[in-house]
Design goal:
- The complex is a heterodimer.
- By secondary structure, chain A is mainly β.
- Chain A is 4% helix and 36% strand.
- Chain A has two domains: 1-18 and 51-66 and 125-214, Cupredoxins -  blue copper proteins (Immunoglobulin-like), CATH 2.60.40.420; 71-123 and 221-278, Immunoglobulin-like.
- Chain A starts with 53 loop residues before the first helix and ends in a 10-residue tail after the last strand.
- Chain B is mainly beta.
- Chain B has helices at residues 8-14, 103-107, 143-150, 191-194, 247-251, 371-374, and strands spanning 41-43, 88-93, 99-102, 112-119, 133-142, 158-171, 179-190, 200-205, 208-209, 219-221, 234-240, 254-261, 264-271, 278-286, 294-303, 309-316, 322-323, 325-326, 337-346, 349-359, 388-392.
- Chain B has a five-stranded antiparallel beta sheet, with no helix packed on it. Chain B has a five-stranded mixed beta sheet with strand order 3-2-11-6-7. In chain B, strands 4, 5, 8, 9 and 10 form a five-stranded antiparallel beta sheet that branches.
- The longest helix of chain B has 8 residues, at 143-150.
- The chains are: A mainly beta, B mainly beta.
- The interface between A and B is medium-sized, with 25 and 33 residues.
Chain lengths: 278, 394
């Protein structure tokens, strides 16, 4: 079993007493059941036994039967993610993610392709993104990375922060002082279904989600809600959309045709709530 | 009585809202303050964290009674499973007739409602902890009649409220005299303070059973006192003739504040008890610009320990303090009161909007630089004025 906790020990932090608060809203539930899951009928795999791309395995049942042949031909996929508001089911925090209620472009949604074909090695450029702690927020709140990427956590506030998670194979808890930083290597892809949920033990309202993929076909939407995947091997894929802060999740099948750009706009609504309300 | 029968707007339109009807504000958020119109757009505050479920969302504050999904929880000890069917509340110690009541027996006592804004005493200490406050209609039975039935003995001076939650505490940590002892969570007050008629043993909030995380099946409610006083999972009420000095009375939730005595600053430690006078700008809104200037309004809330708030004043940048309009209804002595103010036409660009409350005794909510806050060395009782930064675009 490829679990190397000894190489990446949990850095335990003794909390001041006044932070030993049971804040019921910190990383809600700290259980998988509250987390967005792909809207497929897949059974949940055994997490501890998996060291490869969970995303691709999740998608196997839905898409592997229809995967295109071993062609190297590629196509593109692009579109926009929207959110259709429902006055009867208001999303109180939508103001952070939707710039225009009339058009509804949805920011900070994670979009990704899923297919057994993606288990194969795909070229990608390693990156070293930064999650800053500023104004008692993790910025960005939602991040998607490739397995093997390192994330640098920094603290621009004038107070002591912490970055911690109980998820993944390397749970950690590290205090970060002003202008300090901590780098963490993400060694396993949990895909769309198993994000690493990040919090600060000192400030329970701070939270962040890191999605780790084993292929390069993922994206976090910006304010215009758009996404674009280039050089995608032709074939049929599950196209997953998750908005962790909004507790939204949906997916659909999409076909990438050689040499073509497939357009795909997706409209989410309160019907796509995973559980409860955002 | 239905709590979902009318929106606030409908009440306003009908002009029928009253303190008694305040419960109807519980639901149906249209995310607007009473005076706010559909045309007004929210001006986001700068340099603030995002609001989250489980805390009050000031910018969309729309319910005088706070919906459950915005109710915060702070707990200090782990809570064992509680079965309401077997849960009992004891009244013991220096009373002539000690008594143990089941929840069923307690609920058979006369019922009463108590409106109260509950604020964590650390709320407002920093921008990351600005929303630990909510307003409720608590339902339960009054404490004092029960205590009278038990006949408090004359030597009793202190009343202690213990929860069912327990933890091992370490005293004098690291010294030769280190002591570990398991204790229940407790808070206390003088018998004189408990004699006030408004203390409640509550089992309902806003007409629904109290959520377990908020203290079900039974919670002490002390109007006008900070959140920690309102002991959750209440198990035992004990009359004593000595000052109770449990951790959360005598060691934590202790405010250390410098006080000027002549030319000297003397630091005094006091237990966190009554709430301080406070107000905050909850949100700023705007209309489309007019000749390059932006019509702007501000809305907010004010609260205290029950002392009537006489006025709320709002200031923009270095301008004068201007009196805001305090809502007449809904209103209850220990609940927050909403205010609004037309800030007029503001120039495009950054501004700071700030409010201060003034009570009927002339006490003014302090600024961060006033001694009351500047000489405070601890986290709690953070009632300073809170500047809101905005940036108006044409």
């Amino acid at each position: 079993m490829l679990i190397h906790k000894k190489l990446y020990p949990i850095q335990r932090v003794r909390q001041p007493w006044y932070f030993t608060l049971i804040l019921w809203w910190i990383l809600p539930g700290c259980s998988q059941e509250n987390q967005p899951q792909p809207a497929t009928k897949d059974s949940q795999p055994n997490q501890t036994a998996v060291t490869n791309d969970q995303t691709a395995k999740d998608g196997a049942a839905a898409a592997d039967e229809t995967t295109a042949g071993e062609t190297l031909e590629t196509g593109s996929l692009e579109g926009v993610i929207y959110y259709d508001s429902d006055p009867a089911r208001q999303w109180r925090y939508s103001r952070y993610y939707i710039q225009s209620r009339s058009t509804g472009e949805l920011a900070e949604a994670v979009v990704a392709l899923r297919n057994t074909r993606l288990l194969q090695q795909q070229p990608y450029e390693a990156s070293e993104p930064v999650i800053d702690q500023r104004d008692y927020r993790f910025i960005p709140e939602t991040l998607a990375i490739h397995v093997g990427d390192r994330v640098k956590f920094t603290n621009a506030d004038t107070v002591l922060h912490n970055v911690m998670t109980r998820d993944g194979i390397d749970p950690f808890s590290v205090n970060i002082g002003t202008d300090g930083s901590y780098m963490h290597l993400f060694r396993r892809a949990g895909g769309i279904s198993r994000p690493i949920r990040i919090g600060c033990i000192f400030h329970g309202a701070m939270r962040s989600w890191i999605y780790v993929f084993a292929h390069p076909y993922f994206h976090v939407t910006q304010r215009d809600g758009s996404f674009s995947f280039q050089d995608v091997p032709a074939g049929e894929y599950n196209f997953d959309i998750v908005h962790p802060a909004g507790n939204l999740s949906t997916n659909q099948v999409v076909t990438i045709r050689p040499g073509e750009t497939t357009k795909l706009d997706v409209r989410l609504s309160p019907d796509d709530l995973r559980k409860g309300t955002p | 009585m239905s709590f979902h029968s009318k929106t606030r707007r409908e009440f306003l339109r009908d002009g029928t809202i009253s303190a008694g009807a305040a419960v109807a504000w519980l639901s149906n958020p249209d995310l607007l303050f009473p005076d706010q119109t559909d045309q007004e757009e929210l001006v986001p505050f700068l340099n603030m964290p995002r609001a989250r479920p489980g805390m009050l969302d000031w910018e969309t504050l729309d319910s005088w009674l706070t919906p459950q999904e915005q109710v915060f929880t702070v707990s200090h000890y782990p809570v064992p499973p509680i079965d309401e069917r077997t849960h009992e509340i004891e009244i013991a110690g220096l009373v002539k007739n000690p008594r143990t009541l089941t929840m069923e027996e307690l609920k058979a006592q006369p019922h009463d409602d108590q409106f109260m804004t509950l604020e964590c005493s650390g709320n407002g200490h920093n921008k990351g902890f600005m929303a630990a406050i909510y307003n409720s209609r608590w339902t339960g039975t009054r404490l004092w009649p029960l205590l009278e039935e038990c006949e408090i003995l004359p030597e009793a001076t202190e009343i202690v409220f213990f929860g069912i939650d327990r933890k091992v505490e370490t005293l004098r940590r690291g010294s030769r005299l280190e002591l570990k002892v398991e204790v229940p969570f407790g808070r206390s007050m003088s018998v004189a303070d408990a004699r006030k008629k408004n203390l409640l043993l509550a089992w309902n909030r806003n007409g629904e059973p109290i959520a377990r995380r908020n203290g079900a099946p039974l919670r002490l409610i002390v109007p006008g006192w900070y959140g920690v006083t309102n002991v959750k999972w209440l198990k035992r009420i004990e009359l004593r003739d000595r000052r109770y000095m449990g951790r959360y009375m005598g060691r934590d939730y202790v405010t250390v504040r410098g006080e000027r005595q002549g030319n000297e600053v003397v630091f005094v430690e006091s237990s966190v008890t009554r709430m301080n006078l406070k107000s905050i700008v909850a949100r700023v809104t705007r209309l489309p610009s007019q000749n390059g200037m932006i019509p702007t309004k501000a809305y907010g809330a004010t609260w205290s320990d029950g002392t009537e708030v006489d006025a709320v004043e709002v200031k923009v940048d270095n301008g004068p303090w201007v009196k805001a309009r305090l809502d007449e209804e809904p209103r209850a002595q220990f609940s927050w009161r909403f205010f609004s103010i037309d800030l007029g036409l503001l120039a495009p660009g950054p501004h700071v909007v700030i409010s201060r409350a003034i009570d009927v005794n002339g006490k003014i909510q302090p600024s961060a630089s006033d001694d009351e806050i500047a000489l405070k060395r601890t986290y709690w009782e953070a009632n300073q004025q809170w500047p809101r930064e905005i940036d108006l675009e044409t």
